[in-house]
Amino acid sequence: MAEIHEISLKKGREKMLSRKHPWIFSGAIAGGIKAAENGALVRVVSSSGKYMATGHFQQSSIAVRLLTFSDQTIDQAFYKKRIKSALNYRKTQNLNPAGENTNCFRLINGEGDKLSGLIADFYNGLIVLQYHSYGMYHQRSSIKAAMAEVIGNHEHEIIEFVQGLDLKKVDENFPTDHFAQDGGQEVIEAGIKYLINPFRGQKTGFFLDQRDNRIFLRQMSLGKQVLNTFSYTGGFSLNALKGGAVEVVSVDSSSYASEMCKKNEQLNGLSGENHEIVTGDVFEFLKEDSREFDVVILDPPAFAKSRKKSHNAVQAYKRLNREGLKKVKEGGFLMTFSCSQVISNQLFEDTIRTAAIECGRPAKIIKRLGPGTDHPVSVFHPEGHYLKGLLVHLDG
Ligand code: SAH
Predict the structure, then answer these.
(1) Nearest-angstrom CA–CA distance, 355 and 153
(2) C-alpha closest to that of 275 among 283, 265, 284, 285
(3) 226 FRET partner, CA 20 to 30 A, in 9, 21, 76, 105?
(4) Atom of ligand 1 nearest to the CA of 214
């Protein structure tokens, strides 16, 4: 095994590792940091020098992102094994690169797939890799080669992004705009087609985490009037239309999102007569539009990006949900989400309760919602939970 740098823990911190949390914070480290390079592979040893784990070092409060607790070489074969087991797991969930009904899914969900710092989304042969750590960034050639081996006989292309890393510290030739197909990649999700463009879109191009909730909405849309706020490229809207909604209104502030929403509607052969696409601010729309709907969807971007911002975020969620609830007809439904990692399930539920109290509507929680099964969360890494949602019924 090639020599790799060693980092030692402070006395008494070994216990932390027995809980298998995949991060080591800088405060737990006794020595070895100064000599370690940003993004280097490191062995973590106890204060008495015993091997504990291997991971990627980074000069930040999360100092080491652990990859394994058993002493093994981290190379292409290691990544291949992890990616293969991630893919095999997706197949048990009916998610397959060659799927006829769905050919897009999250293939690697960071810590949930024991690959802290790496995200991989599969879009009908287009694999979008996102490196969240310098360690994963440095290992990208092994990762890409391993990915190609696992995907094997399926035709594919890989594109890469970095997320939250200082671009000055990564290769200046790192590709950022080589996605030539202007119209985007065509995918199918639960029988509905979408165009994905990772270079212009948000996240890696699509919100794959909402698949199950979109399908759920489809099943309750027959004959309904549906308001889809923060509609992005129309995921919820198209499901409502396919499910037989009589009227759908989509609202998003991004004109790119509205344009893609229209294209996706056409791609699925929908006439658009009963679909109104509004480019504008949701808060303004809720204030100014006087219509009421059978189903209202609220899927805003993360209002709280850090714990410090969580108080303001709670206020914003409360305001949004209060105004959203006002738009729901008697007997109708509110489908509401938060994708802020720092807002817990309980805090989100409390916020919706306050919103219901403020607008004086009797509301029942009839279902708790979350991401699909291609977004696994390690039990040792509760920080991996971010998307939470509630289906609320307003009766009387
Ligand atoms: N529900 C979508 C994902 C929503 S992502 C899906 O299933 O694909 C959040 C969206 O909110 C983005 O498209 C962004 O452009 C939009 N957005 C952010 N702030 C907004 C605002 N104040 N008013 C309207 N849209 C907003």
Answers:
(1) 52
(2) 265
(3) 105
(4) 7
pLDDT at 1 over 70: no
Alpha carbon of 301 to ligand 1 centroid (Å): 6
Class of domain 76-162: alpha beta
Pocket around ligand 1 at a 6 A CB cut-off: 202, 207, 210, 230-233, 235-236, 251-254, 257, 281-283, 299, 301
Predicted pLDDT of residue 173? 58
Give 180's pLDDT tier (boundaries 50, 70, 90). Answer: very low
Residue nearest to atom 13 of ligand 1 (CA): 232
CATH superfamily of the 186-394 domain: Vaccinia Virus protein VP39 (3.40.50.150)
Ligand 1 centroid distance, CA of 266 (Å) = 21
Closest residue by CA, ligand 1 atom 22: 281
pTM of the entire predicted model: 0.94
Report strand pairing: 328-338 vs 293-298: parallel
Query: What pLDDT digit, counting tens, does each position of 242-263 carry?
Result: 999 999 999 999 999 999 999 9
CATH number for the domain formed by residue range(s) 4-68:
2.30.130.10
User: Is 364 a residue whose pLDDT tops 60?
Assistant: yes
How far, in Å, from the CA of 252 to the mean position of ligand 1?
5
Position 163, amino acid: Q
> Which pLDDT tens digit goes with each residue over 250-298?
999 999 999 999 999 999 999 999 999 999 999 999 999 999 999 999 9
Report the residue among 123, 227, 230 best suited for mutation to probe ligand 1: largest number of ligand atoms under 8 A from its CB: 230
Assigned token pair, 142: 């092994």
Report percent pLDDT > 70 for the chain.
95
Written as six digits, the tokens of 88 are 């095999």
Hey, do 4-68 and 76-162 end up sharing a CATH topology, with the first three levels equal? Answer: no
User: How far, in Å, from the CA of 229 to the mean position of ligand 1?
Assistant: 7
Q: 383: which residues sit within 8 A by CB, 6+ positions away?
A: 111, 341
Å from CA of 260 to ligand 1 middle: 13
Q: Distance between CA 248 and CA 331 in Å, rounded? A: 18
Could you tell me the pLDDT band of residue 18, with boundaries at 50, 70 and 90?
confident
H or E element: which one contains 211? helix 211-219
| pLDDT for residue 316 | 95
